[in-house]
Predict the 3D structure of the following.
Amino acid sequence: IPENWDGKITIRSGLDGDIRNQGVERYKDLNSDHLDILETGNINVNTIFLISRTKQSKIEMVQACLTRIFDDKFEIQSSRSTTIKEKSVWQDIQADCVKLRPMKVKKLVSIYTSRDLAISDPFDEASNKINYLANFDEILKGHRSAWEQIWSHSKIEIKTRNNELLILRLHIFHLHQTVSRNSIGYDIGVPARGWHGEAYRGHIFWDELFIFPYINLHMPKLARSLLMYRYRRLPQARMAARENGFRGAMFPWQSGSNGREETQIIHLNPDSGRWIPDNSRIQRHINAAIPFNVWQYFQATKDMEFLANYGAEIILNTALFWSGIATYNHIRDRYEINGVMGPDEYHTRYPGSDLPGLNNNAYTNFMAAWVVKCALDLIRLFDRRLLNELSEKVGFSEKDIELWEKLHTKMYIPFLDNDIILQFEGFEKLKDLDWKKYRKEHGNTMRLDRILEKEKDSANNYRVCKQADVLMLFYLFSSETLVKVFNRMGYDFRDVQGGTTPEGIHLGAMAGTIDLIERCYTGLEIRDDVLWLSPGLPAEIKEINLNITFRSHWISFKINHKKLLVDFIKGWSEPVEINVQGQRKLFDKNDRAEFDLA
Amino acid sequence: IPENWDGKITIRSGLDGDIRNQGVERYKDLNSDHLDILETGNINVNTIFLISRTKQSKIEMVQACLTRIFDDKFEIQSSRSTTIKEKSVWQDIQADCVKLRPMKVKKLVSIYTSRDLAISDPFDEASNKINYLANFDEILKGHRSAWEQIWSHSKIEIKTRNNELLILRLHIFHLHQTVSRNSIGYDIGVPARGWHGEAYRGHIFWDELFIFPYINLHMPKLARSLLMYRYRRLPQARMAARENGFRGAMFPWQSGSNGREETQIIHLNPDSGRWIPDNSRIQRHINAAIPFNVWQYFQATKDMEFLANYGAEIILNTALFWSGIATYNHIRDRYEINGVMGPDEYHTRYPGSDLPGLNNNAYTNFMAAWVVKCALDLIRLFDRRLLNELSEKVGFSEKDIELWEKLHTKMYIPFLDNDIILQFEGFEKLKDLDWKKYRKEHGNTMRLDRILEKEKDSANNYRVCKQADVLMLFYLFSSETLVKVFNRMGYDFRDVQGGTTPEGIHLGAMAGTIDLIERCYTGLEIRDDVLWLSPGLPAEIKEINLNITFRSHWISFKINHKKLLVDFIKGWSEPVEINVQGQRKLFDKNDRAEFDLA
């Protein structure tokens, strides 16, 4: 609204292809120029376009942009001139404005890429689409309705004193910005840092392990699509295993579009200016995260078609990898996995050692045993015909099955005094760090590894952790499952939590704040075809409301410190059992139920 | 093996990008040049490459070619020269050969396109892959094993006197050449003429209607993938409906990559040299074929996840289209569909009329009623939450449901003497053709429309048919279903076949020879969750053996004139009922059963 002006106004509206990745200060010396601009110009008097192509992957992107000027109701007469530059194009639109009379600028942009489906050529599609686009208000309405559906699927409400809910919703929003129902059917993975910035260069790590619990409960179709991203890279992972002397599949720690290992071999310590060897690719535990996600998706959906045709191959191939990398220790009569890194990246090798890797990382060994047992459970689900096809495709035999039977009950897990799980064998012999001194000298000790390296010392020498490692087990599994698996291995693991509400431990291991609310405070777990709940709300939270999808059924929970209310809308799958702190109920039709909490 | 030569031999091995579409004589004046060759060259001394790109859709294709020469065991010393031309590249490989000593030329080619998934850049992938390819014998072994699995899934054996089995297998082979498990997950439809030649320019028509019965029983995953091809083009079909004044979706009669209508507006009669208006786009019945395929896939698999997330939208959108194009005739108290063409392309308009289209094509009207009823059945499968989302997305309301309820019971079907279904209203008033005269004069009367047009007459004036039209109903439905649907409409349709073995009628309507064996001679139909069989082998066929997949179960049939043998391997889905001529049996575990045939 022009407040103090009558007369000509010029609006500039354009498309700028001269974009560089310069969001991160310390990356500014790196190559930040990733686009070739192929063409810019006019489609017609109102519409301009810009065609760009990514330099390496050669993905073409076409944008068509239509700008129109309106008063309250009608389009305003305007004159325009278009400026066509090599890397950008814009229009200067001149119109008359009247003091205090509103003027609306509506800019619509259509964008197509050469990777889009159901298109002929991205230029044709973008330039046609812009003509068929509804007006801005119609588009906004559609946009709102789409987000309303997303929020309904993602509904989460907590009653607290502060604005925790707002933060949670920000996190949910960012999740949907990175992977959403618009990703379904496209060959898209979950990059550790989303698509927003340059950090980690868009690489895919194991982070979907923290995202799947949420996606499985809200958008199982998306979970399936993300698992297909891994499945399509199984041939590359099989090749990597073969090149490293293993059978099965070895997924890379960091990967890009074609699924090969992209982990850097050296990295810079900006504190010392030194280039340090980077062995993080030996974080082989990603080969547990991926089959774990397959199995969790299957638990949440019972999607046998996916499991039979795709998921099974991932589980069986990684089981083969684990039974290959594990070695039998005759003295211990146990299987060991040596020369790997756990999730904690402060520990890459033993003090003074030249060899990268550590022996018997507890998390890795536990997960390897879990994968192998999962393969055995899987085999029992299938008929002989399918099993024959799988064994031919994956290349496993009766002998492997025999080995897996032994392996998962005889995996070595390092303990201190038969009681406390050690992060890896020998962790107890490392030095204690003088925390007081380092905190005083450096304040922020988040990158303690860099601080120590600068001093020509190493985090490898100390009992310090960057990432949850042993604690990951408590994040992924309930106490019940942990006790069961440890017992199967012959370890007398006591449930130190003494209950089914492991919020304390989980809290420390959490990566996802949403997951904290959804799974930890509710004690939600899916196993043995049952949806288990054992809520334990902290005093600060009065109530949690939650919508989830479970095997096609739509379930709303209202949980406070005394009661848990279930509102069940039956989907198409068979009835499901919900078990709240030992109180079982079968839901076979639309129903409401209230459970008293202990 | 050189039989009479010792000494130098030169082998030329290359990649030729100078390929034109010239398989069809009468297309030779059309544009036959569809590739730009971007680059040719050497990757290393043994490997050459060629990069091409399709002119319109700009899909890049990279081939890398490695040629090596062996004696019985080892690679032979050779010298090579590479010739690099603008559109081709080849190597002349010179080696010494010894009389009667075998020499093997092994040529391996890797090929990647810019549309492939899980790749970085097609050139990188093709040039890396060629280095990692196993030797020829290994590749051949993998190839053989893949085909063995295909043949096991596609097993069909008939005992006849002649080589009908060989012909059937040729047809199965061609089907797998066009759409196969390698198509799954890619945005690929079923072109009417396969990918082999230029005819119909690769366009997609309704032909999957004839292919789905086979695919549903052997590769349901592929069926799903092909239906997704249609689903992705639903927005385009919705736009087409809107432009033609309808709600819902109107799929095009012919389409290409972006799903818009590609049917020609005029076509050439090569006999007369005249360009004739082509109205075949008003074959709106394709909007019945697509939802019919969705429903048949669902019947075969019970894949609720697909139906809920994708298939339902196709069915509901096409139902909206049909209830929009249908008009209510107050005098008849029935709904009519006017101005369309049925499958029979000899009939495009009434004699002497300027307006394209015919009224109340029996097949179209029947199918429209079927789609609308299907939408109603579908709605009953879903919970209120999903229905709300669907109604918002598709844009239908209670009012539409009310209309559908009326429409499917009050659709008008033209009959002659209340007894014989007329192809369309007024078909009975057309002239009879003097067949004797035309057969004598022209011999082959396959393109009678062209012959008549040359004489300035028209096939529209005669009771002649090019394609099965009314008969399509007997191809798609069993007598039981037909009687049921007609009765629902208030038509006293008598089962003129007088039994459940409709081989005669089906035979005339058949498009797929495989389907003839699999569904018609066996009387196989899936409805109401039951697999129905009612075999009626012609005298010439002593026995049929058949493997199919039904809802994850693996079923082998052995059928002769007296008995039907079922070998059932249980998959993961719930037990299924097989009904053989009224004899019911529930299969809930691996089992064999024998049924006596009437």
About this structure: The first strand of chain A starts at residue 7 and ends at 16. Residues 497-511 of chain A have pLDDT under 50 and may be disordered.
